[in-house]
Please model this.
Amino acid sequence: MDILKKEQVISQKEQTLAQREEEAKQAVLAQKAKLEAISGMSAAEAKKELMDAMESEAKHDVAKRIKVIEEEARETADKKAKEIMALAIQRYAGEYVAERTVSVVPLPSDEMKGRIIGREGRNIRALEAATGIDLIIDDTPEAVILSGFNPVRREVARLSLEKLIADGRIHPGRIEEVVAKATEEVELSIKEAGEQAAFDLGVHGIHPEVLKLIGRLKYRTSYTQNVYQHSLEVAFLCGIMAAELGINVKQAKRAGLLHDLGKAVDHEVEGSHAVIGAELARKYGESPKIVHAIMAHHEDEKPTTVLAVLVQAADALSGARPGARREMMETYVKRLEDLERIATSFTGVSSSFAIQAGREIRVMVSSEQVTDEQSLIMARDIAKKIEAEMTYPGQIKVNVIRETRAVEYAR
Model:
């Protein structure tokens, strides 16, 4: 009997608990409904707002964390990188180079102009046909201008004309003979230039065809910088930095020398000079590391080795040093305008100034619209947009400056 009574009591208690649980649920629902009515938003909307707030806070914390990590990394890596680059620049003294697409041949007298032109212009026509270069004989005293895009042909024409002037016998038959000899001389000088570059750098075992291509770079310019001299410069800088980092110096020099190999043929073959150069290096037996360094020096392929990054850095150093490259005034001004236009297109930017001949841009932002953390992200975004929309030698530093001023007057 006692057990039955106890069972009845327990059963009643269970019913009471279930009833109270249901009442509690109803009370919670009623409270939720009241809260929704007071706040003016549903539970789903409140949840979304809370998630948005948490996401914004998380982004803010991430930006802060990125800043701390980058500052810690800069304290060690940036200082060491600057030391290595500064050392390389100090130890390599390059020449200031400026070349054009015309050559001037001096004449002993203005009477020679008539002999170069020949009867009814037959001599000048024969010269232009044999060399593929335009001869400009105008009012310039005692000089003939050779104009042509191909620098190798222009050099052949210059040598041929100098030989003809020195010899004095100028007629179509003689012109063809002299042009053939001058072509042989230029080909020989191209081969010798390639061999000399390899010898100066102490780099051996390069395929003879590759050496010829290196020699051809002597007659090639980029932003008026001689590509042959630039390649030697990059090779020396790579060697210096490799020695500081304790990696293979000869391999670094080899990659630096060959990095612009594609420029010797890129007017004849489709594709970027980095891709063309890498294919040529692969064809003539260069190692995969060298091929990758050539391919990656303009980001046609993501650099995955220290050697590839070294070549990128040395290439930028050689092209960016003062006096190395010269641009037309219009191109230069347009680049500065584009830099400032890209920077001011971002929200919160009050003004922007391109300085140091376009090597740096300073972006002033409104302290009310942009926080310290957002300015860090903005600097990256501006740099990415510049990379995507512009073509420029070397690199461009993006400085985002945010300041808060408190002004009061003592009267």
Remarks:
- Residues 39 and 315 are 62 Å apart (CA to CA).
- The longest strand covers residues 349-355.
